[in-house]
Write a structure and sequence with these properties.
heterotrimer; A: 264 residues; mainly alpha; B: 266 residues; two-stranded antiparallel ribbon; 12 helices; 2% strand
């Protein structure tokens, strides 16, 4: 069997184990899913009210808001389902739980990320897919592009989160700050790109790259141009390169821990 | 004097709560960071929608940013109230606390106000500085300031009654968290967290005005960015009415809950 | 063939001095005042394939740090190490296919699901063929007697059952070296015996066993060789038998005489630990006085009704070595301070 096939088999096993582990809390998982869905819908309330008062927000109308939320929720669900530990890395590092993964013959970062699945995100996934369809107004080529951008959105969130969570390698217990920083990209992603001007635009493109999560994708979906697609893909590559480099540098400084821990 | 002794007792509780809150500085830092992001984003949003000199249904950009500064400072005011009460109820600790010369609800109220005093003022300070840097100081008049302060305190009382009522539900149901979650969503929508409720479509506006959620966030923030006395009187009236209603409900719930302990206690 | 080999392997940690409060932590961000902690210093180890080695030392001696370096979890500060021909921290993944680990305080098994599911996942992680996996799993279930609870969620197992499953899980991929860090911690007497028997069996099958434990019973029952470290360096490295011989110059002798005696004569080399009526407990230094001589001296007092001659427990021996070593360290430090 090839290495790729072996790894695919492993990942499938990993996700199915995650599922059986999550099933131990079946009820709470269902209620959580419903709650997250309602939460998503309520967030739209604000934009609905605002767009009753003004015709558009710097050119963004309700359809754009749908696309934006679709990408944010869909992207989040992709990473929460496939790499559910993406925003728990900091505590895993500072509590010395990496030991477990380091003793096993797999890439540590990948292994940690996929060892948890947030199944409540199924609600967000559905929400994202429906909003995408509403925003695209048709299930054609545009929708395929939407799906691609959903994947890149998740990938950006994951890579950015790895960067902020890796701070724990260097500064010890910093979970609260790491998590808040990682959520900043989510916060910025949920507002129209056009409201960030000047220095703010620089921030959302290069410091907390939410611009590549929703802003540029939404505009590319509205007026297709291949440059937008390339920009998003390039930003993904760059963010991942930085994330992997920082994680690798951190791993060399990893100090392990002595807590008693149980596997999820 | 008896009343004075009581006051001393509960103000000591409040002071302890305030001091212990200060220890959570890392959490506070993270929250301030989040707060700054929200303000930063909204000053951009309102700048885009309204422009520097325009208005939206009578509100300027500056007013709307400062409105948000107040509502967020209030909702981000952290309290461990729900967690504390829930723990007391679930662990049965509450039975022992009842044996002490304290009124449990007053004790929790004192603790809550102590915590809120610290977190809300720190949030107001931090948020105020961020808003000031982003958009400048609004034209604050002394009456506005007084009105806002009074309404913040009244709103905090309404909030206490709601939160305590939710936490005490753990006498009767397994999980009280979902109710808290619903509460926070109602604050977000009917409390007018992001925009003043008078900008809402008519039905929502009417509904929101009648409910207690706007007393917590909308009323004080609206007064701060320039309310009139008439509005202040009606806001105060609504808040007081809800306080009395909810406090009655709370003590009823509490007495029912306590009976439940005796039954379970065997 | 050597299973484990290290040359001058060392690890130092930088522990930052934490200043309390808000201002303190702001200061910590730019001010890097702290202290260097030496966890392991210049360790030279050679362990042959198939050996069973106890790696012991007081808390904080550097045992866990060493194991973590040998398994690739931690990078060393300096020095070299080869485990089965791999440099652990450089070839971690490849090495991991050939070693097994049981950390008594950390679980390999998922808490909410049965061992069977965790085994399935581990089978995939170790890239085992389905056929081999099933065969090996059945073998282990039988050897470790897991069948009764193999499909019960781990959270419902007793600690003894869980540890048996942990050990079996660590052996799924047929490792050549087994690292055990406190494998019997928290277990009751029966479960502990059970674990020890299993570990002995595994070692008999040719698996190198590298064990740390504070339980002298584990060490005595499982290992033929003892390596003791303290303050990050090796203090003792010898076979269990010679360790006992060297440090068992003392014997513990319990005597019951026919008649009670009041006064004991002073006998050089024999220290009376306890004396009550006709009963005596004596620590004998055999380099100064032979057992035979002591027997004669005692007979002069009164006829002997009963006598037992025993070794002091391993625990005492180890405690003695620790104390001795700490005293030496203290002296060395004082000398260093004077100069």
């Amino acid at each position: 069997m090839s290495t790729v096939a072996k790894n695919v088999r492993w990942l499938l096993a990993q996700w199915s184990i995650n599922l059986s582990s999550a099933m131990a809390y079946r009820i709470s998982f269902l209620t959580q899913m419903v709650f997250m869905l309602v939460n998503d819908v309520l967030l739209l309330f604000f934009w609905w009210v605002l767009l009753q008062l003004v015709p558009d927000i710097g050119g963004w109308g309700m359809a754009d808001v749908w696309l934006m939320y679709g990408l944010a929720a869909g992207g989040f669900s992709v990473v929460a389902l496939l790499a559910g530990n993406y925003n728990r890395l900091a505590s895993i590092i500072s509590e010395g739980q990496l030991d477990y993964y380091l003793a096993l013959p797999k890439n540590v970062l990948l292994h940690v990320l996929v060892s948890r699945t947030d199944f409540a995100a199924v609600g967000d996934l559905l929400f994202g897919l429906v909003l995408g369809a509403l925003g695209c107004r048709a299930l054609g080529a545009n929708y395929l592009l939407f799906l691609l951008f959903m994947a890149t959105a998740g990938s950006m969130m994951c890579a950015f989160s790895i960067i902020t969570n890796s701070l724990a390698f260097f500064f010890g217990r910093s979970e609260a700050i790491s998590r808040q920083l990682a959520e900043a990209i989510m916060s910025f992603s949920m507002y129209p790109g056009t409201i960030y001007q000047g220095a703010a635009r620089f921030i959302v493109l290069f410091l907390v790259p939410a611009g590549f999560v929703t802003h540029i994708p939404v505009e590319t979906l509205r007026h297709f141009n291949s440059i937008g697609v390339w920009q998003v893909l390039a930003a993904n590559v760059v963010t991942w390169v930085i994330a992997l480099a920082i994680f690798r540098a951190g791993l060399k400084r990893y100090e392990s821990g002595n807590q008693i821990t149980l596997r999820g | 004097m008896k009343l004075e002794k009581k006051w001393r007792k509960y103000s000591a509780v409040a002071k302890t709560a305030a001091q212990s809150r200060l220890a959570y500085w890392q959490e506070m830092g993270a929250r301030t960071f989040f707060f700054a992001i929200v303000l930063f984003t909204f000053s951009g949003l309102w700048g885009r929608v309204i422009g520097t000199n325009g208005t939206l249904a009578g509100y300027s950009r500056q007013q709307l940013v400062w409105y948000l500064t107040l509502t967020e400072a209030i909702t981000l005011g952290a309290t461990s109230l729900i967690r504390e009460i829930e723990q007391d109820v679930k662990s049965g600790q509450i039975a022992y606390l009842l044996a002490k010369p304290l009124n449990y609800l007053l004790y929790q109220a004192a603790y809550y106000f102590g915590e809120m005093a610290v977190t809300t003022s720190l949030n107001l300070l931090a948020g105020g500085l961020v808003a000031w840097a982003l958009i400048g100081l609004p034209a604050i008049t002394l009456p506005c300031l007084i009105q806002a302060l009074v309404l913040i305190v009244l709103g905090a009382a309404v909030r206490f009654c709601l939160l305590a009522a939710i936490a005490l539900l753990s006498f009767f149901v397994e999980e009280s968290r979902p109710f808290y979650w619903i509460y926070s969503k109602l604050i977000f929508t009917l409390g007018g967290l992001f925009i003043p409720i008078d900008l809402y479509p008519e039905i929502f506006r009417r509904l929101a005005t009648l409910l207690p959620f706007q007393s917590i966030t909308y009323a004080p923030a609206r007064a701060f960015i320039g309310g009139d006395w008439q509005q202040f009187v009606s806001s105060t009236g609504t808040a007081l009415l809800w306080c009395i209603l909810l406090a009655g409900l709370l003590s009823f719930e509490f007495s029912r809950g306590v009976k439940q302990i005796n039954v379970n206690g065997g | 063939m050597l299973a484990i080999e290290t040359k001058n392997l060392g690890k130092e940690f930088w522990r930052q001095k934490k200043t309390a409060g808000v201002l303190g932590s702001v200061r910590n961000l730019y001010q890097r005042d702290g202290e260097r902690l030496v966890a392991v210093k210049g360790l030279d180890l050679e362990i042959a394939s198939g050996e069973s080695v106890a790696f012991i030392g007081p808390n904080g001696a550097g045992k866990s740090t060493t194991i973590k370096m040998l398994t690739g979890i931690l990078h060393p500060s300096y020095g070299e190490a080869q485990v089965l021909g791999f440099t652990p921290w450089q070839e971690r993944q490849r090495l991991a296919f050939h070693i097994g680990t049981v950390f008594g305080q950390k679980s390999q098994l998922w808490y909410h699901i049965p061992p069977a599911d965790s085994f399935f996942l581990l089978g995939r992680i170790y890239e085992m063929e389905q056929r081999d996996f099933v065969r090996r799993q059945n073998e282990l279930v039988e050897l470790f007697d897991l069948s009764e609870f193999f499909h019960v969620p781990v959270r419902k197992l007793s600690l003894g059952q869980r540890m048996r499953a942990e050990l079996a899980a660590a052996l799924l991929h047929q490792p050549q070296v087994l690292f055990l860090d406190e494998p019997t911690i928290g277990l009751d007497v029966v479960a502990r015996q059970n674990m020890r028997n299993l570990i002995r069996e595994i070692n008999a099958l040719g698996v190198t066993v590298f064990l740390t434990s504070h339980d002298t019973g584990d060490i005595e029952n499982l290992c033929k060789r003892v390596i003791m470290i303290d303050n990050g360096g090796i203090v003792i490295d010898q076979s269990m038998n010679s360790l006992k011989r060297d440090h068992l110059a003392a014997k513990i002798i319990r005597v019951r005489l026919e008649a009670a005696i009041d006064n004991l004569p002073c006998i050089t080399g024999a220290q009376v630990l306890k004396h009550k009526g006709a009963g005596l407990k004596i620590a004998l230094d055999t380099s100064k006085l032979s057992i035979d001589e002591l027997y004669m001296r005692l007979r002069e007092l009164a006829p002997i009704a009963d006598i037992t001659i025993g070794d002091p427990p391993l625990e005492d021996i180890i405690a003695n070595i620790y104390r001795h070593n700490q005293a030496l360290e203290q002296e060395r430090r004082e000398l260093a301070n004077e100069t």
